[in-house]
Every structure is written in structure tokens, then in C-alpha cells.
Amino acid sequence: MIDDVVEFTNREGRRVKQTAWRDTDATEMKAFIGCLVHIGAMRQSGCSLKFIFSAIEGNALVKASFSLKRFSSLLNYLRFDDKSTRTVPREEDSFTPIRDLWDSFHGNLAKFYSPGQSITMDEQLVPFRGHCKFIQYIPSKLDKYGTKIFWACDAETNYPLRGIPYLGRVTTSHQPRDRSVSVGASTVTSLTQDFHGSGRNVTCDNFFTDLNLAESLAKKKLTLVGTVKRNKTFLPKDFQEKKALELDASNFLFRQDTTLVSYQNKRNKNVILMCTMHNKPEVSENNGKPEIVLASSKLKVGLMQWTKWLTRSQSSGRLKGGPWSFSSI
């Protein structure tokens, strides 16, 4: 992967600066990427290069590794592919400038690791405000604007298993989608494709959870635990209505191998969950919470830790163009 980045960066540098370009190599590129990660870890990703290289308040590690001119030059000409030899034009796949590197990265993730029994799903927003076809606005996130990635992680170790960039409601060779299936359901199916038939559990939030998804995963020998939006059409009216139950009260509903539970966790708020792993109305003797609720909370911790770590350590490095912001990962 590093060798490819070195090759494509040198090609771009020679194309633009010609004989004035000084070729980079794998050692320098590793140092450059390390500095970007360090900038993110120091929470300086929003700072200008002038500040990072300033004499008093600058980043000592970066200044010791590069001159401002060289660092800026590598940043400007950093490339992950050669656009003159792309097999898929950008019009067909907006992610094509970094697609090959992204696929190689995921190949390495899966090469030496086998996850435990539980896999969690969630989304991550990579902060970015530049020009990009698939930029997203999520008001609930701290940064609000950016490019979105759907992740699958091992619930026990937080290890990332697979990620899919969200390119909008489009259909490409890399993002095929059946229009009759929700984005969330199709995403979970893609993220778990390497684990079909393994008997593992999938935990997700209400963006992904759907009855059709639960049935589809069951055919692939995967169980599902997830929160459900109140407006889902498959829910009975009793679950869709905001009925106030007693605090810590639970209402169960069973359908073949699928269980629904409505749990009153706050005085004026209840949460709805779907599960194909538990088929009994089991409630904890310690706190009165349904076992489904406890299982969901426990299994989602891994992914929350992973996305939190990414948010704290990412560095866009003021790179231009949507896909470049993914170099932070």
C-alpha cells in the first residue's frame, strides 16, 4: 500500500513540477503519514500549517521531521491512484481516487484476524467541508458536515472488520443496491458478507434495524439485536403509540423466531428493540431491564469506542477533495 502511494505521489509531482520535484520514498512517506496521525492525536487537524510549523506553538515532532516547504509539497501532491489509468471513471464511482487503496486496506484487516461471536454496526462522520459529491450533513454529530462511513467491528475487542463509504443514494458497481431494500439493511448485508453462515450475532441501531433484515440474516444464519424506530410499518399500533408504561416496565411481542420489546427506561420515554437471539421474556433480577436491552447496550460498546478513537485521532491535513479526507483512517 505504501509503495503504491509513493509511486502515484511521485507521478503527480513530476507531472506538475517536472524536474523541480524531488521524489519521495517509502521511509519518508511513512514519516509523513505518521506526522498526520500525530497531528490528529494532538487535535491540531483544524490548524493551519503555518501554526503547526510556528516556532513557539508549533508541533515539535512534525517540525523535527519535515520543513514546512517539503511537508506542504507532499500534502499537495499526495495521490492514491493515477487518474490517467483509472479503470472506472469518477462519474461512475465518486470514490474511485482512493478505491483501490481502500480495498487493499480492508484486505489487510481481514487477513490475520477472526472476530468473536458478536459484530456491531454504526456510522462514522469524517469531518470535511470541501467540495464533494457525497458530503453528508448530520446535525446530531459534533462536526455536522463530512463524509460518512458505515463500520462493522468486533464487539469484544473494538477491532474494525469492514467499512463502507456512503456515496449517497446511488447505484454503482461497488455500491449496488436493490431499491426495495433500505440503505441500512443493504449496508448490513454487505458489511457481514464474510461472516454469513457463521452463527454470529449482529448488533445495530435504529437506522439499520428492520424486520426484512432480521429475516434475511436468519437465512444466512446470523442473529440480530437492534433498536427500532417507532414509525416502522411492521410495528403493531401498540408499539407505535407513545404509551407511558410504569418506569422499568416491559412489553414483549413474539413472532416465530423474532422478539420485540418496548422498555420504559425513562418516565416519558421508552425504547423499542428487535431480537432474533432471545425468544423468551427474560428480565434481569438486578435492575429489571430486559435481557435484550442489556445485550444491546453491552455489544454496542465496542463500536462506540472505535468511532470515538477515530474522531479523536483523525487528521484531514487540510487536503482538498472529498476522498482525500479518508487518508485520516
UniProtKB/TrEMBL annotation:
Pfam families, per database record: DDE_Tnp_1_7
InterPro entries in the cross-refs: PGBD
Domain PiggyBac transposable element-derived protein: 2-287
Name this polypeptide is given: PiggyBac transposable element-derived protein 4
